[in-house]
Specification:
This protein is of the alpha+beta class. The protein has one domain: 3-Layer(aba) Sandwich (NADH Oxidase). It has seven helices and four strands, in the order ααβααβαβαβα. It has a four-stranded antiparallel β-sheet with strand order 1-2-4-3, covered by helices on one side. It is globular, with a radius of gyration of 19 Å. The protein starts with a helix and ends in a 13-residue tail after the last helix.
């Protein structure tokens, strides 16, 4: 499949057909994804291939409280779990939400599910001393995670990357035996999409790219 076509049609696929994603195909996806860049080429990622349905149910249960808060904040017009703006959502509003969410509710039945972690001892964090949430360490793990989605698209499958589980990282790490220095980066579901989208809605380049300055002229090629 053409590279640009893969990039422009790899959407967040959460609903899957019953089509199997066999181990050979999944291995091939990871075989290609591993060529993602990382700081110092240290490749601090680890992937847990989740096959046990009971284990998947347990992970879905761990995500439920976070999903409820996410939905309550989104319903109120907030950016959920913002590190910039405090939430004004009450616990009562959170409790009233359903824990159901596309993909997480179907986690047990997804053709494939992967938990991706990153070894923080192998990650460079240039922004660790700044008075904000660190984002630089993500450069050493999320290119790999997105490569998994792109490789799956090339194989005729789709996927979704979700980070809900990170809010209950200690419980998930204990459940899965994840080492202390590793952080949970994301949970990825893979399968054949019930409907393959081909026209994704994204902002045009000249709305987010400027020349020489934040308030510079829009870059329009």
């Amino acid at each position: 499949m053409d590279t640009f076509e893969v990039m422009r049609t790899a959407f967040a696929a959460r609903d899957y057909t019953p089509r199997e994603l066999d181990d050979a195909t999944l291995y091939r996806i990871l075989e290609h994804a591993r060529f993602a860049p990382s700081g110092g080429n240290r490749q601090g990622w680890h992937v847990i291939v989740l096959k046990d349905r009971h284990l998947r149910h347990q992970l879905a249960d761990l995500m439920a409280p976070t999903i409820k808060q996410y939905k309550a904040q989104a319903m109120k017009g907030e950016t959920p779990f913002s590190s910039v703006h405090a939430t004004h959502v009450t616990q009562e509003e959170i409790d009233a939400m359903s824990p159901e969410m596309p993909f997480s509710s179907q986690l047990a039945d997804a053709p494939a599910a992967l938990l991706v972690t990153v070894d923080l001892a192998k990650v460079t964090a240039f922004d660790q001393s700044l008075d904000r949430v660190a984002v630089v360490p993500g450069a050493s793990i999320y290119p790999f995670a997105w490569n998994i989605i792109l490789a799956a698209r090339n194989e005729g499958f789709g996927g979704v990357l979700t980070t809900f589980l990170a809010n209950h990282e200690p419980e998930a790490k204990a459940l899965l035996g994840i080492p202390e220095t590793h952080a949970i980066a994301c949970l990825i579901g893979l399968g054949e999409p019930v409907k393959q989208l081909t026209k994704l809605k994204r902002r045009p380049v000249d709305e987010f790219a400027t020349v020489d300055h934040w308030q510079g002229h829009p870059f329009n090629g």
